[in-house]
Amino acid sequence: MLGGASFAYLAVETSTGPHVTPLLFAATPDRVWFAVGRGTVKARVVARRPKVGVVASNDRASVAIRGEATLLERLPASPAELARAPFAVPDFASRNALEMAAFARDVALRSARPQRLVLLSVRIDSLDLLEGWPAEAVLGWMSAAGPIALPARWSARTEHARVPAGPLRDAGGPRTAAACVCIDESDGLGPLAKRGRLLRGEGHATLRGDVASVALEADRITRWKGFRTETAAA
Q1: Is residue 106 part of a domain?
Q2: What is the pLDDT of residues 158-205, one digit of tens each?
């Protein structure tokens, strides 16, 4: 996994298309690990639709992963997931120590009651190293084989996302699909510094050479700031 990556973006399949959010993560050789709220969209849908996409990024490159997710509290989990979990927890704690300390601080400041966290394991079935593509934003794209997550350059003026064409071309399928763009605008440690937008709707992809242009016709937008999340018509 990329050194220097603080967050990874997890794309899951909902009934209306892909849903992408940034999350703290840890990694073992063949899996990516997340801690997710028990009652979140992610936790609810992966039990029924386990195919997911993941993007992890630093300021020079990204990796785009496709795989299958398992919630470890939903038994039976495979022996492989159970065997690797003890190795993932120390990595998660050490990688995210500052964020976890800031989380405890912000919960105390706001007397918040965060959801109980559960461990989510993503088996890495395929991985693309995308040099020169830091995740300024992340595109979620619905393919026949499940959701794809790709690093994107998003233009709010034209409502277009530019993404590496290779993974989109490899996925095949139609050039029009349910899509979303996640724009993380966080500016510090802890949940009170977290904010961003998720635009969801229909995407239209044009592939030319190594770069694809995706026009997003957004029909709804989810905004998050601190502990608050709201969704409205775009």
Answers
A1: yes
A2: 999 999 999 999 988 889 999 999 999 999 999 999 999 999 999 999
Distance between CA atoms of residues 69 and 49, nearest Å: 9
* Token code pair at residue 113: 């009651």
CATH of the domain at 39: 2.30.110.10
DSSP symbol at 214:
E
Give the containing element (helix H, strand E) for 217. Answer: strand 211-225
Domain count within the chain: 1
Q: Quick check: 80 and 70 in contact, CB under 8 A?
A: no
* Helices vs. strands in the chain: H and E counts, helices first: 4, 13
Query: Does residue 93 lie in a domain region?
Result: yes
Instruction: Work out the number of other CB atoms within 10 angstroms of the CB of residue 84.
Output: 18
Q: Considering the domain boundaries, does residue 2 fall inside one?
A: no
CA–CA gap between residue 117 and residue 96 (Å, rounded): 15
1 within domain boundaries: no
Mean pLDDT over each residue of the chain, to the nearest integer: 91
75 vs 2 pLDDT, higher one? 2
Output the pTM of the full model: 0.92
Three-state DSSP class for 78?
coil
Q: The domain containing residue 71 runs over which residues?
A: 7-233
CA distance 31 to 118: 16
**Residue 56: what residue type?**
A
Return the HEC string of 168-211.
Answer: HHHHCCCCEEEEEEEEECCCCCCHHHCEEEEEEEEEEEEEECCE
- Reading the block at residue 21, the tokens are 């959010």
For 110, the enclosing helix (H) or strand (E) is: helix 97-110
